[in-house]
Amino acid sequence: MSDSHDSFPFSAATLLAQAHGAIDPATDAVVPPIHVATTYLRGADNSYPSGRVYSRADNPTYLPAEQVLKALEQGEDALLFASGMAAACTVFQALAPGDRVIAPTVMYWALRNWLQQFAAQWGLELTFVDTSDVNQVKAALAQGPTRLVWLETPGNPLWTVSDIAEISQLAKQHGALVAVDSTCATPLLTQPLKLGADIVMHSATKYLNGHSDVISGALVTAKNDAFWQQIRTLRGQLGAVPSPHDAAQLLRGMRTMHLRVREACNNALYIADRLQRHRAVKQVLYPGLPDDSGHAVAKKQMHGGFGGMLSVRFRGGAKVAIHVAANTKLWKRATSLGGVESLIEHRASIEGEGTPCPDDLLRLSCGIEQRDELLADLLQALESAPA
Ligand code: PLP
């Protein structure tokens, strides 16, 4: 996990536990206040002395979480959003009609679906490639001018790993920006901006909050440039912001992220390793396994763990996968990921047509429960599976 942050000379653990160490100047409170006001006083001289006008654009309650994210990702600025989707979609809405985007074949399905629809309506040219293969990205960049390369690594739900440093270098040579959905890597395991990316995106609903009780998203930028200002303006115009209460709850969740992510990574590695030896298992997809196709790049760009997400493919096909999900007791059958409780999901059922996800696959989001209890629950569900 990353150490020492520019504006806060302590480790990520200390940065998170103390939420950047800020004390509320008005009250000396050790927890920042929640600002519920929607509007701010205009001065007698007609200016806004506080610099704030109206809360649809921003709210001071967002600042502590944004400050922590900016420091963790080592960016110039950070913004909270109403959801991960709001954060990601705002990046694409900041592009101009005619711009070309390269995106991964393995990515969060709802964003892929939205992107296909939006690209057609907005006039974006969209090229999907397997971004875990740098040569495919290279070939796509050579096909014509590109404005943005979107990456997601590890990529949900097959956990393919894309080489952020190599792709960022290539993109730069072609004048393209790189944005990375780093939700599943978390700001602790990978820092895309340090590897050359321009923007990093998180569904803060997942590991950042970590308790399955806040929907939120975030972007962090390497440079506070014109493109970023366009994103900030769009956030304010669209009101794509979280409620102040959600922002405060998110910050509380972030204070223990380092502990939760460590446990989730340890549980995932343990379960991946045990399951891959089970006779009913065809394949475990987890970049932490030495023979996983993404392991070498993951080792290079992930530090402190390989994430809490894995997928399992069963020899008996969809019927076994669905049986296992139906018969676990500790693992909860639910969508989403990154919470303290472990979740299990048959992804092909939710992703529908066009998904690269095989129907013999279950996606597992490892929580922070005791690892042998989690494993035993999966094994007992497998025992009664149809042959
Ligand atoms: N990115 C990834 C990798 C996700 O898994 C998700 C949600 O599952 C999102 C983005 C979207 O985030 P949200 O649900 O906060 O809109």
UniProtKB/TrEMBL annotation:
The keyword Magnesium does not apply. PROSITE patterns: CYS_MET_METAB_PP. One of its GO terms (molecular function) is carbon-sulfur lyase activity. Gene3D superfamilies: Aspartate Aminotransferase, domain 1, Type I PLP-dependent aspartate aminotransferase-like (Major domain). Its cofactor is pyridoxal 5'-phosphate. Pfam families: Cys_Met_Meta_PP (PF01053). The modification N6-(pyridoxal phosphate)lysine is found at K206. Keywords: Pyridoxal phosphate. One of its GO terms (cellular component) is cytoplasm. GO terms for biological process: transsulfuration. CDD domains: CGS_like. Belongs to the trans-sulfuration enzymes family. This is Cystathionine gamma-synthase.
